[in-house]
Amino acid sequence: MQAGEYIHDHFTKIVVRSQVAIAFTLLLLLPAANFFYPTDYGLKAGIHGVSAILAIVIGTYLTHRAIPLIKGMHVRLESLRRWVLFATVLNLAGAISGNWIYMRYRGQDGPRDWILAHVPNFHNVLMEFKEFVSLFPFPLMLAATFTLYYYGMPIQYRRDITRFVGITILVSWSFLLLGFAAGLVLAKLRFV
Questions:
Q1: pTM of the full predicted structure?
Q2: Is the dihedral of CA 144, 169, 62, 127 positive or negative?
Q3: Do 139 and 111 form a contact (C-beta atoms < 8 A)?
Q4: Which positions ≥6 away from 31 have C-beta within 8 Å?
Q5: How far apart are CA 60 and CA 136, in angstroms?
Q6: CA 9-13-19 angle, 5° bins
Q7: Pick from 144, 161, 180: which is nearest to 56 by CA?
Q8: Residues 36-85 pLDDT 10s
Q9: What are the sequence ranges of the domains in the chain?
Q10: Residue 148: CB partners within 8 Å, gap ≥ 6?
Q11: pLDDT at position 114
């Protein structure tokens, strides 16, 4: 007995969209709680946390849009260009806010001093790695954005360029994920 093609009905779409909205809201509430954390750096930490979460969510969505580009499939480039531009702005916001909160990390009696005193290998390996890997997503996304806007709609007929854009998005997301995971470990060890 063969199963027929599954067709999403209206109720299923509502359930799926509701689940995504609830999960996204809960995910954003985690860094938004930093705004209320009893520290002088709650605003900085909150802005950086929210921009990092949004960058991860949009970057993850773009990886699903990048796979068809790499395979040479037809994609809606107008929509993709806007999403990539939005992801570029979010990555810039994450880098700027990360450098803003980094001053506290390196400051007197900051998390860096505590980490060096208690787990120096963590700082010497993971944090030195995180400091640089977290900066890579912005220039990569900027390159993808520039390429999409420079070549415009005729890019659909240039498989080499669409592959370049797709691979750039995937590599950017990989660096973004590595930096995000290292940042979560840092926040777990010692909050700013």
A1: 0.77
A2: negative
A3: no
A4: 45, 46, 48, 49, 50, 52, 53
A5: 16
A6: 145
A7: 180
A8: 776 777 788 788 888 888 898 899 889 988 988 888 888 888 889 999 99
A9: 30-189
A10: 77, 80, 81, 84, 155, 165
A11: 81
